[in-house]
Design brief:
It is elongated and about 180 Å long. The chain has about 525 residues and is an alpha+beta fold. The strands form three sheets. Strands 2-1-5-4-3 form a five-stranded antiparallel sheet, sandwiched between helices. It has a five-stranded mixed sheet with strand order 7-9-10-12-11. Helices cover about 55% and strands about 15% of the residues. The chain has 14 helices and twelve strands. α1 runs antiparallel to α4, α9 runs antiparallel to α10 and α10 runs parallel beside α14.
Length: about 525
């Protein structure tokens, strides 16, 4: 806008010069046609010097005013309509120059130069008026000092209301909250902190955080708190546990954190302190640890009992079975058919009980006699499992396909037993067709998901979890032999190796057993 006004002024001045001097600019300085003003008319010294002194005084004021305007505009870069100050400065300088020339022509009659200055002053005056006509509507939109004061007062009231609301929210929190400056001085805290420790707000505000009287052991807390405040000041949050002084003097455990909070410039402006009373949680954890210790002890004793009891039961059962078979062999022809049937029942029951005891021994040995988990060639474990089942495979006509396996973290003997039980289960519960069994797996994150799938009789989905419980059977022993312990053994093996096992199956459409196991870290 100011550039447009300046351009107009220069254009008009140039046109005036051309018009007045027919293009001969040197005439501006020609004073031959006019006498000095002292020689025009009858100027008395009093009247002449009155004009001269008045014009010079006006010129001095007109020079001083732009200097002050320019100084003010340069000192206040954010002032609105800043360019208008520069335009006013030019306008006033032009006005002052005409007054200076009015005094000079008393001795030097440069009337042409004076005319040019007056023409420039007129043009600048018009340009200033034009700019003002464009600017005044915008100025009228500016708020008055009273309006600004009212707005500041309203904004201050809103901020105070927001502060009070925020304080109420903070006071409603059950956590211990505090606001610290960058040196660790406590600026604000909430009611939860005061109630829990029984201190007054005026006793803790504006004091170093480590000297607020909240801490059970002041001497041991100070280094930890100073270090945490230094970390927060550098933009790094810290979390730790401390002992705090409760209202009744007892010590409470606090999960404490100090977090840096940025200001409007993105730099750390203050520090938020937050504490959570975890005394009850720690007591429950200690109690749980104690219960786990007792439970582990009880489990070890139970496993030892099962192992000893099962081992001691084997010998009398072996004798029962042996003597029953001796009776059958030596006196079979002398016994009645009914007595022979009874003896067969004794032998069959003893054998079944021996199998059950062996399975129970296997379960008890999974934890008590298992080897340390280590990298294992899973391909060798699958191959050994298939070799152990070779007779059952040949009798059933089963076809087994095995995909390559990676190295897994496992107990080698138990991994073989796991695959052996699952493959044996697939052979046992075959349908009308010969068993088609596929063994493989895939990588799932840090674990490897193994599977054994078959085309057998399958089961209903609602029984998918029950079959892993010990002694749980879905068929009678006449239909499918077994003790109902095999899948329970599989589950315990998988759990010991840090994985899980599950079944996906549909009745009459086969089954797929899945289990996860950790892979070796390369």
């Amino acid at each position: 806008m100011n550039k447009l006004a300046g351009g107009i002024a220069l254009g008009v001045v140039g046109a005036g010069l051309a018009l007045a001097f027919s293009g001969d600019v040197s005439l501006v300085w020609d004073t031959a046609d006019y006498p000095p003003r002292w020689h025009c008319g009858r100027w008395t010294p009093l009247m002449g010097w009155l004009h001269i002194i008045s014009d010079i005084a006006t010129w001095v004021a007109y020079v001083a005013i732009p200097i002050m305007l320019v100084y003010f505009a340069r000192s206040q870069p954010e002032i609105p309509f800043r360019n208008l100050f520069w335009l006013f400065s030019v306008f006033i300088l032009f006005c002052g120059s005409t007054h200076l020339m009015e005094a000079i022509i008393f001795w030097w009659p440069a009337y042409r130069l004076l005319g040019i200055l007056k023409l420039g002053t007129g043009i600048v005056s018009i340009a200033t008026a034009v700019v003002l006509s464009w600017t005044i509507p915008k100025m009228l939109q500016l708020q008055s000092p009273q309006q600004l004061e009212n707005k500041v007062a309203q904004r201050t009231a809103e901020l105070e209301l927001t502060r009070l609301q925020l304080q109420r929210v903070i006071d409603q929190s059950r956590n211990f909250l505090g606001i610290l400056d960058l040196d660790g001085t406590l600026l604000e805290t909430n009611q939860a902190s005061l109630r829990a420790t029984g201190v007054r707000k005026e006793d803790v505000l504006n004091r170093p955080f480590w000297e607020t009287g909240w801490w059970k052991d002041f001497s041991s807390m100070k280094p930890t708190l100073e270090s945490a405040i230094a970390d927060a000041r550098n933009g790094q949050g810290t979390r730790f546990e401390l002992r705090r002084q409760a209202a009744d003097g007892a010590a409470i455990m606090v999960d404490c954190s100090l977090q840096p909070m940025p200001g409007t410039d993105g730099q750390v402006a203050w520090i938020l302190s937050e504490g959570i009373d975890i005394t009850d949680q720690r007591m429950r954890e200690d109690e749980l640890k104690h219960l786990n210790t007792e439970l582990s002890k009880s489990n070890r004793e139970l496993e030892q009992f099962a192992y000893v009891a099962s081992h001691d039961l084997k010998e009398p059962l072996r004798k029962i079975s042996s003597f029953a078979q001796l009776l059958q062999n030596e006196y079979g022809t002398k016994l009645s058919a009914e007595a022979t049937e009874y003896i067969e029942f004794i032998v069959s029951s003893a054998d079944r009980l021996m199998t059950l005891i062996s399975d129970l021994l296997s379960i008890s040995r999974i934890s008590s006699q298992g080897k340390e988990l280590a990298p294992v060639d899973a391909n060798a474990a699958v191959a050994e499992a298939i070799s152990n089942l070779q007779l059952a495979i040949e009798e059933s006509g089963a076809e087994i396909s095995v995909e390559p396996f990676p190295t897994l973290i496992a107990d080698p003997n138990q991994l073989t037993l796991l695959f052996q039980n699952l493959i044996e289960n697939a052979i046992k519960y075959q349908g009308q067709n010969s068993p088609q069994i596929r063994v493989g797996g895939r990588q799932i994150g840090p674990q490897y998901e193994c599977f054994v799938t078959d085309n057998g009789i399958g089961i209903e989905e609602k029984y998918a979890d029950r079959i892993f419980e010990i002694f749980k059977r879905l068929h009678s022993r006449d239909e499918y032999p077994g003790t109902g312990v095999g899948l329970a053994i599989c589950k315990k093996i998988v759990q010991r190796m840090g994985g899980r096992i599950w079944l996906e199956s549909k009745l009459g459409q086969g089954s797929t057993f899945y289990f996860t196991i950790n892979r070796q870290t390369i």
